[in-house]
Amino acid sequence: MGHFINVGFGNIANADKIVGIISPEAAPVKRMVQSSKDSGMAVDATCGRKTKAVLVMESGHLMLSALLPETIAGRANQTAVREEGHE
What we know:
By secondary structure, the chain is α+β, with helices and mostly antiparallel strands. It has helices at about 25-40, 70-85, and strands at about 5-10, 10-15, 20, 40-45, 55, 60-65. It has one domain (about 5-85). The protein contains two helices and six strands. Strand 5 and strand 6 form a beta hairpin.
């Protein structure tokens, strides 16, 4: 069963499919995000706010979030620990 986490504003992502969570500040990441938007592989979950984290998914999609990478990672870890306790 997949672990789902809130990536902000009621948007949910499958934590099992996340390859990495990165900050969008570096120029290479900005280029990667723009390329993903141009090719239709970006999922914008920011609700119009500033992108603070980019989730790289197994499928090659990028999910943009207005939450900090540390916040998302903490939520993913909490969900994984909770699920392990119930198995």
